[in-house]
Amino acid sequence: MNTFPIDITAIVGIVMGGLCVLIPVAGLTARFALKPIVEALARARELQGQGREAAMLEKRVALLEQQMHNVEGNLDRVLEESDFRRQLASS
Fold first, then answer.
1. What is the pLDDT of residues 26-45, one digit of tens each?
2. What predicted TM-score, i.e. pTM, was given to this entire model?
3. Within 13 Å and on the Cβ side, how many CA atoms surround 37?
4. How far apart are CA 76 and CA 71, in angstroms?
5. What are the E-state strand segments in the chain?
6. Nearest C-alpha neighbor of 79 from the set 2, 38, 87
């Protein structure tokens, strides 16, 4: 029935021999091709994290400045009241 003889053993041998060479070559190529991409993505995520960290620090500093202004305002009012009471006591 077969019009041409096919030697399966030879085909499997050729394919396996080719794969023994091609798989490591493909792996090394992928490693050197993908390494810069992966490093760039890692750097981008790191910078994104630093951006969030900087925003958080800015918020904290703004809150501290607001508290400082509140304390200064309270201190000014206490000093004014102290001066007023001293003037009342002296007159």
1. 999 988 988 989 899 999 88
2. 0.46
3. 5
4. 9
5. none
6. 87
